[in-house]
Amino acid sequence: MTRRRRALIAAGAGIVISASLLISSYQLGGSILFWPQVVGYYICILIRGYHTATWKDFALITLPINAALYALAIYLLLKPFAPRESSVAPSS
To answer: What is the pLDDT of residue 90?
Structure first.
């Protein structure tokens, strides 16, 4: 698996995970879904303020931040499945 393919898989999965967690936490309102998104929530509160942040602000700020974090984690988890690169040039 090439680096580019790993990065595309990680980015797509990160966006899907972040969006599904955000939508699920909004609909269910449970605190268990808060913890996987805590970094994005705190950054949104730092940027927009605790009482002035709206649902749209949380969606526009929290979603990409958490997606980037999940994509990084998935990219690193996929690394062991990548083929090893040889440091020796192939002979002709």
So the answer is: 61
Q: According to DSSP H, which parts of 1-92 are helical?
A: 3-28, 38-48, 55-78
Contact (Cβ atoms closer than 8 angstroms) between residue 18 and residue 63: yes
Rounded distance, CA 12 to CA 80, Å? 19
Residue whose entry in the numeric block shows the structure tokens 């958490």: 66
pTM surpassing 0.85? no
Q: How far is Cα 75 from Cα 2, in angstroms, rounded to an integer?
A: 11
| Residue 27 or residue 82, greater confidence | 27
Contact between 40 and 60 under an 8 Å Cβ cutoff? The reply is no
Phi/psi region, residue 49 (left: phi>0; alpha: psi -120 to 50; beta: rest), is left
